[in-house]
Amino acid sequence: MVRERELTIIAQDPGVRANGRILTARVILPWEELSAGPRGSRVHVVDYDSSTHTLYQPLPPDPEEGDRFRHASGPELISNPHFHAQNVYAIVMRTLQRFEAALGRRVSWSFGGHQIKVAPHAFGLANALYSREHEALLFGYFPAARGRGVVHTCLSHDIVAHETAHALLDGLRERYRDPSSPDQAAFHEGFADLVALLSVFSLPEAMAAALPRRAPRAGWNLRENAALGLARQFGRELSGLRSQALRRSVALKPSRRLLQRPEFQAPHRRGEILVAAMMSAFVAVWQRRVDALQLGTRKQVADEGAALAGHLLTMAIRALDYTPPTDIAFGDYLSALLTADFEAARRDVPFGFRAALRRSFARFAIAPTSAGTGTSAAAAEPGLWVAADQERGTQLGGNLDYGRVHLEALQRDPQEVFNFIWDNRGPLRLCDQALTRVQSVRPCVRVGADGFVLRETVAEYVQTIEAEAGELAHLSTAVRKPEAMPDSLPVTLYGGGVLVFDEFGKLKYHIHNSLQNGPRQSRRLDYLWRSGYFHPGFQPGWLELWRQGSKP
């Protein structure tokens, strides 16, 4: 029998009330042996305040493995540092659990250690951040407006989930923090915001609180009745933090011109477009389901919305395995979303999320990177990554050499994957002049919509070339440097791909941003040159915001 632990958390934000009480929820987590902190196998709460040099005594484990705060009142939850520790532990673990369930495997932190440190009262600032260098999630606190006590960012569900998503994405795609393009700079923030929103939306308690107590006479208008209502509640006491971006994202009206507007070249604002496209699809599917099923009561509508949010969150996370490891664009992520869900459920039923996502992203002028279709003519869908055995012009599937491949080693050993890459660098169209490194090999076990188990192995490799700008024209990549860039300037080119193998060790997909894609590499260099990246002492604005944390 699988043991579980049920813990109380604040469902959204201390400022959100239900019947005059702080809105709480109870979440079910995998059971584990906890030490004082709480300290488990993956999360270690260390309650040290660097502003006051105070170390709070850790919460001792409950000998009955219960929930000390199940019947606690609102004032106790806000004022009790032991509850703050439980709240961050539970939300971080819940987010980690969602990632591992979606990906079908354990997910490692980027820094190589087993446990991430979480400080619920890290400093007396209106800020929160993930720090790879400190192997930690750090949450601040600050005086509330008009002298109404202290606001703790560790009590805001969306902020805790947002920072945890940064940490998990950093472990899965370490190159996404590299300066590359406007989309890559925006993706980290947009994806973390998306996880935060859907994490809150997947709680029936939060969804119900956003809905009117009675069904409107004109019927449920879920964009107005729930989505916008719930978004307006984000950050009631956290003015200036990322909650403002969450509200803007949900309210953002679709336009095919947004990506070109100057204000949306800034990474945080550009990330809002990704969130808006996803949430627009979510509301469209939710509205269609409520109308088709003739759901009338507040509870029915809230439960359906929470279930759909959980489903879309799984799709959003699972798509990461189908994204290229470098230089991601929003169109890459859309193709990854469609393909990952297609592999889990060939028919886009019962929710129709893939069709809704294609329509929603198109309204923001985001097209799938892949113009290909599915793995058979009968199941063809636009926007899916092209399967390895259908790549036009290369006949990739038929030309691959599996002579040195050992299935068991291929599923876990980076050297075995490198052997496969080396033997097939021609058919895979890799750059022979580059340094190639296999960054990860991850066996995955997922349950599809039909109940059958999907087994895959996902391997990630990166290629790099270091050269002087004047040498670029002589490389096989045919990269053009910006006209004003000095010939002697050192530059690094990045490329890479993801190899998705089936359970028999045959290549299903090769998803890559090739080092030999001269136009794409040239655009990247031009963007970095115009942004001042190569200037001495340059600190990119988006990276500075990263280090500052959630404060925009």
Give the helix/strand layout.
Layout: E1 4-10, E2 17-18, E3 21-22, E4 24-30, E5 43-45, E6 48-49, E7 54-55, H1 74-79, H2 81-103, E8 116-123, E9 128-131, E10 136-143, E11 150-152, H3 157-172, H4 182-201, H5 204-210, H6 222-233, H7 243-251, H8 267-293, H9 298-318, H10 330-344, H11 353-362, H12 396-399, H13 407-410, H14 414-423, E12 435-447, E13 453-468, E14 490-501, E15 507-513, H15 518-530, H16 541-548
Parallel strand pairs: 5-8, 8-10
Antiparallel strand pairs: 1-4, 2-3, 6-7, 9-10, 10-11, 12-13, 13-14, 14-15
Helix pairs in contact: 2-3, 2-9, 3-4, 4-8, 4-9, 5-6, 5-9, 6-7, 7-8, 8-9, 8-11, 10-11
**Gyration radius over CA:** 24 Å
CATH level-3 fold name of the domain at 4-172: Elastase, domain 1
Write down the overall geometry.
globular
Number of helices: 16
Sheet with most strands: 5 strands, mixed
What is the C-level CATH assignment of the domain at 4-172?
Answer: Alpha Beta
Low-confidence spans: 374-378, 542-547
Structural class: alpha+beta
| Strand runs, count | 15
CATH architecture assignment of the domain at 4-172: Roll
- What's the N-to-C terminus distance? 46 Å
Helix content: 25-40%
What's the pLDDT, averaged over the residues? 88
What proportion of the residues form beta strands (DSSP E)? 15-25%
